[in-house]
Amino acid sequence: MVVKSIDHGTSSLLPFDPATRKLVLEWTPSHLHVVLWNLQLNKPESVESFAGNIADEYEWQSVMNQSRLLHYNDMPLLAYCASGRAMPVPAALYDEATATRELNLLLGEAMWLRSFGDTVSNQNMIWFWQMPQAVASWLEEHFSSVTFRHSVGALLSIERNGDEPACDFIIDESATWALLLANGKLLQAAAFPLNNADDLAYRLLSMVKSSGLENHELLWRAGGMIETDAALYKGLEKYLKNLELRQTAHGLTDGVNAHYFAHLFEILS
Question: What is the pLDDT of residue 255?
């Protein structure tokens, strides 16, 4: 069952020139975010979010029955995926068939997937990832044009010169992505299952330790589907020094927590 969990600003939308807006979505196996981005103001104008596994025609129809933004299907769509089937590959060694075999060895073979390779030039890598063929085909059939990207690959493309060591992680029921960064460079990227706070903290701290860094040296930035008053955040606070929610300059009204979308807003800004 798919449920619309967030609706910000769609009821007050006025007619607009499509050339001044960008329609963006992010898909994972457990949620769908949709953002109408105002290019003139460089900020989100409307946001929708849906909870549930949106993977077949019936579920997409349920989304369409509840969504307002997805009916702007004459606009080009920028479609991000944040699923856990992804890995970095050195650009000089990239070959799609080889990357597919290696990803299958890491995560197990899966059928009916489409593969993509996003260039991350500032890291000299290809971010190789996969999503269900059915999801990609539905989007291509519904919209006039679709550009596919992986959320993590897009985040890695952002220049971060001089940044202090940090671990950015994006919480989702299907997977938690963690990016360990120092001096503007990626040290490690990993997708972890979301079992509980103790397990996630252990995996995050192990990743940091293997890179030669210490817990107290890092700023831990949590984003995605997490609340400060929830058991997961309170549990992580016991282990992770300097833990905070991801910040964004684009606050939302109506009681909507902007950190759910902070990583998307960072990519779009």
Answer: 65
